[in-house]
Specification:
Elements: H1 3-33, H2 43-88
Length: 89
């Protein structure tokens, strides 16, 4: 996979992580404070959905953060190797 596609994938994962986390928090907040129990959906089902969305956001967010830091470390390592090659020549 090219470097550009990897960066686009990391950005997409970051956006999905933020959206998933926000939706999970929004669902939990709305269901806890604003909606009276009108239907037959149990509050435990709603809390499970919101917890899974928050978990998904956390996992994708950590992976995206790790990918960015790894690429930064990789670039710094390439710079050091290149600098060593120039000084030894």
């Amino acid at each position: 996979m090219s470097e550009r596609k990897k960066m686009e994938l990391t950005r997409l994962q970051g956006v999905i992580a933020i959206a998933s986390f926000s939706c999970g928090v929004l669902i939990a907040g709305v269901c806890l404070f604003f909606i009276p129990p009108l239907g037959e959906i149990a509050s435990s089902a709603i809390s499970i959905v919101s917890e899974l969305l928050v978990l998904c956001g956390a996992i994708l967010g950590v992976k995206a953060s790790y990918d960015v830091k790894f690429r930064k470390f990789e670039a710094e390592l390439k710079d050091v190797i290149e600098h060593d090659k120039q000084t030894s020549s």
